[in-house]
Structures are given as C-alpha cells and as structure tokens.
Design goal:
Helices cover 54% and strands 11% of the residues. The chain is an alpha/beta fold. Helix 3 packs across helix 4. The radius of gyration is 13 Å and the shape is globular.
Length: 125
C-alpha cells in the first residue's frame, strides 16, 4: 500500500516532538510513503521565507532515511491534467498534491488540512 504526505504532514513528521493523528501514525507505519515533487518546492518556499529552518532537500533526506519517504515519479503532465478538475481551491500546491494521490489509484493522503479532507475522501489524519 502507498500513501502520500502533504507538505504540512512532512513538516510535522520531520520534527521529533510534533503530534500527528492516530490514524495517520498507523498509516505511516504500514505504507510506502510518497510525496509529490511539488511538496519539495513548497518546502523550499517555506524555507526561503523563514517559516521552516531546514531546506527542502535536507528534510526529504531526513525522512527518506528515517521512514523511507520517496518522491513520486508520476508524469507531471498527467498530474497537471487531473489537477485541472480540483476546482475547490486556488492553492496550486494543494491542487497538485491532491491530484497526485488521486491519479495514483486514489491513494490515501496524510494531511491535517480540513479543506483537503472535505474534498478528497481518502484523506487521513
């Protein structure tokens, strides 16, 4: 089984003391974890504006070694095509993150974002 992590889940999981939901924690233990490449970009933006202290590559390397997180390699053109139908948000990052999970067999998406949960039925937190 695979599951995706959204940007904020990646940030929370990378912090040793961060709380995550019980269902999300169980899924992290048993799933192969993926992130959309757009998560890397959003992490780097957050680093550049000082909202997080590590650059994207460092966070992903940390999670790769600790829990096996991998960057998904689905074709961007296919993901973007699915994202065209995610009209519930103007946030391009959220549209692409959800589209990535949707395209990959409606994979579970680990996210604490209530708006994502409202529009993507396989959201877990």
């Amino acid at each position: 089984m695979i599951a995706y992590l959204d940007t904020h889940a990646v940030i929370r999981i990378s912090r040793s003391q961060a709380r995550i939901g019980h269902n999300a924690a169980r899924l992290i233990q048993r799933a192969s974890l993926l992130i959309s490449p757009i998560v890397l970009l959003e992490l780097e933006y957050l680093y550049e504006i000082g909202r997080i202290v590590l650059p994207a590559k460092d966070i992903v390397r940390k999670l790769e070694s600790e829990i096996g997180v991998q960057v998904c390699n689905l074709a961007f053109a296919a993901v973007a095509s699915v994202a065209l139908d995610e009209k519930w948000t103007r946030d391009a990052f959220d549209r692409i993150i959800v589209a990535q999970a949707r395209l990959n067999g409606l994979a579970p998406l680990i996210s604490s974002d209530e708006e994502i949960a409202e529009h993507y039925p396989r959201t877990v937190w």
